[in-house]
Design a protein that fits this description.
Blueprint: E1 5-7, E2 13-16, E3 25-31, E4 42-47, E5 50-55, E6 61-64, E7 70-78, E8 85-86, E9 94-98, E10 102-111, E11 138-146, E12 155-164, E13 167-170, E14 174-177, E15 182-188, E16 191-198, E17 208-212, E18 216-218, E19 221-223, E20 226-235, E21 246-250, E22 261-262, E23 267-269, E24 275-281, E25 287-291, E26 297-301, E27 308-309, E28 314-318, E29 329-333, E30 336-341, E31 344-350, H1 355-359, E32 366-370, E33 373-374, H2 378-385, E34 392-399, E35 402-409, E36 411-414
Parallel strand pairs: 1-22, 3-10, 9-14, 11-18, 11-19, 20-27, 20-28, 26-29
Antiparallel strand pairs: 1-10, 2-10, 3-6, 4-5, 4-7, 7-8, 7-9, 11-15, 12-13, 12-14, 12-16, 16-17, 20-24, 21-23, 21-25, 25-26, 29-36, 30-31, 31-32, 32-33, 32-34, 34-35
């Protein structure tokens, strides 16, 4: 993860200050692993009229009070024993907007330990407004706000993926601190993009598709609290509850390692009674991943989720590695290895005795539609293909110059 990472574990808050005074920012710089504050870290912000610096005190806290309102970019963050961050003046993936009479508190920046001399986002993802002027075409802008109240969200991140057919590559992750919940990202080349917003206390937004040319395109995001997914995990053999099982949300690129934000995906761990609760799960999550030492990794489909609220609890049974020594994972699906190729999914292999194997799917088959719907992306296709054991999914297959439908029964796959 490229530094600095805006930590989205706790919401930032807006605190009224003197009406005419430029808004300040209060926060902390912490160790990305331990979460402990880093004292003596130096932060430098750029503005139209120059650069301004501040430093963290005991406990890692900092206070930056600009002399004028406007946009400031964090161009340097250094601390002894940590990988330093430095960007060209005026170019940074972390932006702070000072507004009159509004201070923003609760901002947390993360640094990782290391002795690398200097690093910038070219090592882990392009900065939102980096690149030669000749390639700077479109600008994406908008607001991020609470769907229930309409109130702006003061600290958030915007992630952008460039679409090429079914493939999607992250190109412009950026973090913003703005009392108005506003953002702007320029320098984007012409093309199709998928955009998502993330903020503490909310589910990651669904993906908005935009097409940019030499223009300005607006994309606003109304964030929801998301689903609260609950359930229990037991041993498949003994039926006894399992404690210490780690559960994470799978799919929709929420776990992308190169986004400069954290956390990237809701996580939870079962208690002594095997129960768990995952907060702020987005409605387009593919499923859950349940992991515990001594057991086979299990992928569980979530199905349809509400934008806000609690779906029905789910029960997960993990298989002991003693009972399945050769298996690395279990899931309910068709049992096929898939790869994106142009505007379709290519079958790269089938699991013996899985649904795809039973239905006669072959390596080299191209999946054109799933239950009559087009294949839009790999992650959305996986979500559509998976489902409850024993149910059927209809795939439109292209093979040897002809198209035909295949009904595939979803089965428990162990591989």
């Amino acid at each position: 993860m490229p530094p600095p990472a805006l930590q989205l574990a706790k919401p930032a808050s807006i605190r009224p200050s003197q009406p005419a005074a430029p808004g300040a920012i209060d926060g902390m710089v912490v160790d990305s692993v331990t979460g402990e504050g880093i004292a003596g870290a130096e932060l430098t912000f750029s503005h139209d009229d120059g650069a301004y610096s501040t430093s963290t005190g005991v406990g890692g806290g900092f206070h930056f009070a600009p002399k004028a309102v406007g946009a400031y970019r964090l161009i340097s963050l250094e601390a002894k024993g940590y990988v330093p961050f430095e960007r060209e003046f005026g170019h940074s993936p972390v932006s702070f907007t000072s507004a009159p009479g509004k201070d923003v508190t609760g901002i947390v920046l993360r640094l990782r330990r290391g002795n690398v001399s200097r690093i910038d986002l070219a090592d882990g993802g392009a900065a939102p407004d980096a690149g030669p002027a000749a390639t700077a075409r479109g600008t994406l802008f908008g607001r991020v706000f609470d769907s229930r109240t309409g109130a702006p969200i003061a600290a958030f991140a915007i992630a952008i993926w460039r679409r090429e057919g079914l493939a999607a590559d992250v190109v412009a992750p950026a973090s913003f601190v703005d009392p108005a919940g506003a953002y702007e990202i320029d320098g984007l080349e012409a093309g199709s993009y998928e955009v998502s917003a993330l903020a503490a206390g909310y589910a990651r937004s669904t993906y908005t598709t935009v097409r940019l040319a030499d223009d300005r395109v607006e994309a606003d995001f109304a964030l929801h609290s998301g689903a609260r997914v609950t359930g229990t995990v037991t041993d498949d053999g003994t039926r006894q509850p399992l404690a210490g099982v780690k559960l994470t949300v799978e799919g929709r690129r929420g776990e992308s390692p190169d986004l400069p934000v954290a956390p990237l995906s809701p996580e939870a761990e079962t208690g002594p009674d095997g129960r768990f609760a995952l907060e702020h799960v987005p409605p387009d999550a593919i499923g859950l991943q349940a992991e515990k030492r001594g057991y086979v990794l299990r992928f569980v489909s979530l199905g349809d989720l509400p934008l806000d609220g609690d779906p029905a609890p789910i029960a997960i049974a993990l298989t002991s590695r003693v009972a399945a020594a050769d298996a690395s994972f279990e899931l309910t699906g068709i049992g096929a290895v898939l790869r994106v190729e142009a505007d379709a999914l290519m079958v790269r292999g089938v699991v013996p005795n899985g649904g795809a194997f039973d239905a006669g799917l072959l390596e080299g088959d191209r999946i054109l539609t799933i239950d009559g719907g087009p294949v839009k992306s790999l992650d959305s296709a996986i979500a559509a293909i998976r489902g409850p054991e024993g149910t059927i999914v209809t795939l439109r297959i292209h093979r040897a110059g002809r198209d035909f439908d295949v009904r595939v029964t979803r089965k428990l796959v162990r591989n």
